[in-house]
Amino acid sequence: MNLALVCVGGGRGERFGGDKLAADVAGRTVLQRSLAALREAFPEAPIVAVVPPERLGFWAARLEDDFPSLRCIAGGERRQDSVRRGVEAVTAEVVAIHDAARPLVDPVDVRRAVAALGGADGSILVARVADTVKRVDGRGRVVATVDRVRLRAAQTPQVFRVVALESAWRRCDLGREWTDESALLEACGLQVMTVEASRPNPKVTTPADLELVRRLMGASP
Questions:
Q1: What is the pLDDT of residue 217?
Q2: Using an 8 Å Cβ cutoff, are 121 and 114 in contact?
Q3: Which of 16, 17, 124, 128 is deepest in the core (most CB within 10 A)?
Q4: How far apart, in whole angstroms, are the C-alpha atoms of residue 84 and residue 76?
Q5: What is the tens place of the pLDDT at every residue in 140-156?
Q6: Which residues have a Cβ under 8 Å from the Cβ of 204 and sit 6 or more positions away?
């Protein structure tokens, strides 16, 4: 499989209060840990890191020793813009897109997500929804309890055939906010498979998330 890896972290970190990718997790930055997991999963695949434009020089210098073949590029205004820039920066038939703010992803799960693609257009790493889920109205009043048996929380990496992504970009309204690329493919009627993560894979969005990641890292064997 002609595969490339895209690690996306082009956001401004407003909810975190700074560059969350530079936060320390057991002696390495969040971004370094995410990249290391991708590289361990697929040592030979081309890899791109998409970072905030104002931090491009910082990250290019910071990462060059550990990841000499890495290409560092500036992200866009929205996450979906950063993803597209990353995908367009590589030449591959299949691309694995990973949120840079998920530093605990298991390399085995990265490989499983790619393997789950099979003959589909995309495949994504997911987690079962453990909480009871409520649907509410505009006033916050509960109107229904949702059956969680078939619910999954989307994670990353998300793996796609590049031709399917390109098709979705042509056919979908890119003026609206798409929370992930799987939603783009779904809107076009393309097939996306799922595979459940074998280990916790939280995303660092707030300082509390970072503390959770640090605790999980300390608890790992």
A1: 86
A2: no
A3: 124
A4: 9
A5: 999 999 999 999 999 99
A6: 16, 20, 23, 30, 101, 102, 103, 210, 213
